Amino acid sequence: MAGTLGIFGICLLCAGVHMTSGMTVNIPDKVYKIGRGDNVVIPCTFTPSTSLSSISWTADPDIKDDPEINVVGYFTIGSKTKVYNKYKGRANMEVDLLKGTANLQLQSVTSADTRDYECKVQDPDDEEGRLSDKASLVVLVAPSQPICNVVGKAEYFQNIELTCRSEEGTPTPTYKWQSYNVNNVPRPLPLKASEQNGALSLVNISMDTSGYYICTSTNEIRSAKCNVTLRVDPPSLNMASTAGIIGGVVGVAVFVGIIICCCCYCRRRREKAEEYAMGTPEGGEFTDKDPEEREDDRDEHVNYEEERRVKSADRLDPPDDRSERSYDRRSDYDDRRDHYTDRRDDRSDRRERYDRDDRRDDGRERYDDRRDRYDDRRDHYDDRRDRHDDRRDRYDSDRYDSRDRPPSVPPNKPKEPRN
Ligand SMILES: *[C@@H]1O[C@H](CO)[C@@H](O)[C@H](O)[C@H]1NC(C)=O
Ligand SMILES: *[C@@H]1O[C@H](CO)[C@@H](O)[C@H](O)[C@H]1NC(C)=O
């Protein structure tokens, strides 16, 4: 064991002696990743040598075959460091000749700094060494807040797509959807759902599909989310048909209204015509007596009516005319009294007839009765006259009333004489 170690050590020593004869430049990693805006250091080591003249960092051009871009150089003469224009203010090289390090510093990197960098040592005395090494710098960009959208109609039986996309992200983010029910409890995605490039396809959706859908956009350095609230509604009528239905309903209502108005108008006109045609007021319809009595009563009605009017006219006349007028009236009245007396005679005759029938007492009572009834009827008649006038005034509003009233029969119509 010890012997083996000893041989290994000797070999190492021999190798070291051999290496001093040739320069070695080394960048430890092939790729360096850094977040955008951060500062990065790309290390470079070399075999210390008193004979090296300069160390430089160069970058690959955007376009292949273009000349390489100078970043920063170190010159042993005067220990001078030169930062080239393109990197002024944000690039530097840390050189330690004794340790053999020449690290590149870049500040506030951007996506444009993503490229290959080369560390080169120039040593005029070294003819066989490997004098440079290369590495890649990748500037990473966190995914931006993804934008989520619902593509399609969120109604029963529809197929829709939930989309999710981050505007930036280096490397390109990957997307993943998760579902929560309306009570915010996680649940598996629907069975027929499929996910591709951030688009979640949902087929034949229903109320159960409603809930929250969260998309997570992730790349190497960070992740970001968006949140879609999906509410699936029953199929709705589209705007055009809704407007059509409303318009139709309004049209029908207007039409019906016009018809009703026409009917009312026609009916009113017809009723008017009918009432005028019927014409005669219900004044003298005492048809429930034997003809003889009716004649008498009617005459007496008229007489009493006239008398009443005369009296009321007297009351209303101014005092001057009054005496003369009242004289006329009085003589008029006397005539009437005469007339009335004649009638009384008539009645007396009739009474005598009753007497002759040996029913004198009976007849007298009946006569008195009839007188009373006659007075009553006269009042009733006046009443009806007034009512009739009234009705004519209020013709329109009262017409239903007058139509519906039962045929006017005096409430106290006299009974047939008990002959
Ligand atoms: C969609 O789902 C309903 C029940 O929710 C079902 O009756 C219907 O057949 C389905 N349609 C299709 C095309 O799968
Ligand atoms: C999604 O949004 C809803 C309502 O805005 C909220 O209640 C829910 O917690 C959110 N979910 C997540 C994971 O942010």
TrEMBL record:
Residue stretches in coiled coil: none
Keywords: Membrane, Signal, Transmembrane, Transmembrane helix
Membrane-spanning residues: 243-266
Residues spanning the signal sequence: 1-22
Residues of the Ig-like domain: 37-138, 158-229
GO cellular component: plasma membrane
Keyword Cell division appears in the UniProt entry: no
Region of interest (Disordered), residue spans: 279-419
InterPro entries assigned to the protein according to its UniProt record, in alphabetical order: A33, Ig-like_dom, Ig-like_dom_sf, Ig-like_fold, Ig_sub, Ig_sub2, Ig_V-set, Tcell_CD4_Cterm
Basic and acidic residues composition-biased segments: 299-406
Keyword Signal on entry: yes
Domain of life (superkingdom): Eukaryota
Entries under Pfam families matching the protein: Ig_3, Tcell_CD4_C, V-set
SUPFAM superfamilies in the record: Immunoglobulin
Protein name stated in the entry: Ig-like domain-containing protein
Species name: Sinocyclocheilus rhinocerous
